[in-house]
Amino acid sequence: MASIDPPPFRIYLLRHAKAVRGDPGQRDFDRGLDDQGYAEAEMIAERAADCGYRPDMVISSTAVRCRQTADAVRRAISETIEPMFVDDLYNGSAEIYLDILSAQRDSRSVMLIGHNPVIEQTLAALIGTSQVSAAIPSGYPTAGLAVLDHQGSGTVWTLTDFLKA
């Protein structure tokens, strides 16, 4: 399992909501949310707010569908949260996602909004593949939100909650 040192005390890993199918010639990066995706983004953001999940920092991929998901989170959780958009989350590896989390030394809780399969790989790096399989046996759904809490020192992370839209 991965080490994040010093860690935030809580990590939120949110997969973007459902996106439109790409049109011929359209870049994957430019695909936005479809109607179901807009509904998913609003639902998961509201569910997170209802549970009291309020990250200090939101870091999102720059892809259109992630930006739109981040906007729903901002509206539901706090209009004062200004998401940080990071290009490296678009085609990045789990190692890059973990490096970005590690760099957040001033935040007690951080939300990453990214893409599958990397968001699921990041979760597995933090809690282990068997824990991921038990929590989400059908795979990481669109607009799925993992809530992880740090326990003590080192690499001990606990999956506290997993919300679906």
From TrEMBL:
Gene3D superfamilies: Phosphoglycerate mutase-like. This is Histidine phosphatase family protein. CDD domains: HP_PGM_like. InterPro entries: His_Pase_superF_clade-1, His_PPase_superfam. Pfam families: His_Phos_1 (PF00300).
